Amino acid sequence: MYNIIWVLLTLLLYVSRVIDSMSSDRIKVLKSILAKERLLGGRDKRGKLHENDPNTGFDCCPTVLERISPLGGLSRDGKLLQLYRDTNTVQKFYEKSCAPDYSYAPCRFINQTVYESRCVQQFTYMYAIVKDFNVTQPFRVDYIKVKSGCTCKVLRERAMDL
Ligand SMILES: *[C@@H]1O[C@H](CO)[C@@H](O)[C@H](O)[C@H]1NC(C)=O
Ligand SMILES: *[C@@H]1O[C@H](CO)[C@@H](O)[C@H](O)[C@H]1NC(C)=O
């Protein structure tokens, strides 16, 4: 019994230390990545929904194209990177996300009685001027993770009860 309490206390202490060790800067960058906060010039215009274009056909998973100017990003091995930025230079990217209603939702045009399907966010890696976060080292060119589209995955064929 006392053992369990001891373990819990140690765990709590560890968690609070981890949170303390994150500087406020790091938390700001993390938040900006997670909340997709658009800095400088405020929020970009809302992305246009790319659908219902008879020339290019209809997407089973509609997407939204947005121009973002993030403060930080994730490397190929999931490390936090800080993007280079000064008053004259802001790195911008075009990001294609699953449309809000379609993120991990069943694909359009797929008969749901026959197939279980999901719209799944796709990613790619783009070159950017970055450095590892929170270390004093020169900037370098490296890959950051960027949303690159939304694809329809068929998970399984539903068993037909005839
Ligand atoms: C979906 O598939 C089922 C079974 O084959 C069929 O009965 C139904 O009519 C289909 N629905 C549509 C919208 O095509
Ligand atoms: C980040 O920087 C702060 C202040 O410079 C330092 O106290 C902290 O240990 C650093 N954290 C990491 C994970 O390097």
From TrEMBL:
Leader sequence segment: 1-21
Residue ranges of domain Spaetzle in the record: 60-154
Record-given protein name: Spaetzle domain-containing protein
UniProt superkingdom: Eukaryota
Gene3D superfamilies the UniProt entry points to: Cystine-knot cytokines
Keyword Magnesium: no
SUPFAM superfamilies from the UniProt entry: Cystine-knot cytokines (SSF57501)
Keyword Disulfide bond found: yes
Keywords, ordered alphabetically: Disulfide bond, Glycoprotein, Signal
Pfam families per record: Spaetzle
GO cellular component, one term: extracellular space
Lineage: Eukaryota, Metazoa, Spiralia, Lophotrochozoa, Mollusca
UniProt-listed PANTHER family: NEUROTROPHIN 1-RELATED (PTHR23199:SF12)
